[in-house]
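S.,

Sequence below, as promised.
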Amino acid sequence: MTSAQATPAASRTLRPAPLRVLFFAARVALIYGLSCALWPALHSTYARAFRSSGNAVFGAWGETTSTRFQPNPRVGHSDVKVVLRSDKHPGAPGRVQMSSQRIGFFPTAFLVALIGATAGPRRRVWQLPLGLLLIHAFVVARVWLVIQLGFRTQFARPPALETFVPDTMLELLVLWTFDEITSSYLAALLVWGLVAFRAEDFARRVPAAATAVARSS
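The prediction came back faster than expected:
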């Protein structure tokens, strides 16, 4: 068989791939869009769970400091207020504000959309619980960074991180993980890649794709 004869077959093999990507992206957009459309109905319950989880994880911040997650009475996206207290500074407590939607809901909903849109043998029963565990570890880490920066800027810096995380580095981490919504989507994509694919998936597909490309050349 000549290369000219092999080219149409290779093209038929490669042609469906862009369509599969498009259909996958459409499924992700549909599931994620529906999740975001339900946010007004979910807001109160999710924000309450976010505050309760924050108090459970971060309530006892240190020996002389504490945090308290409370509803933020201000109108806007920042629906959570974190009250920072330090025994060494008995005056007015510090405060940081955050959005439960931007910090927690967006990355979680996007990850659920990615996993829900993943069809075929790669979708396994343990993907969703493991993915949710990992994405919430990311949420906890970004909240922790914000609280740490809040204590540093509003009180004397706590000793927990002053030796190995400079202020500039901490501010950059907060800027990327907290202020940039892009980090939510990148984290969800990373977690999805970790739970949706295994080494044998790449070992099986990469040689097949390379063979198809070689035949088409």
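Confidence is low (pLDDT under 50) at residues 1-15, 159-164.

Coffee later?
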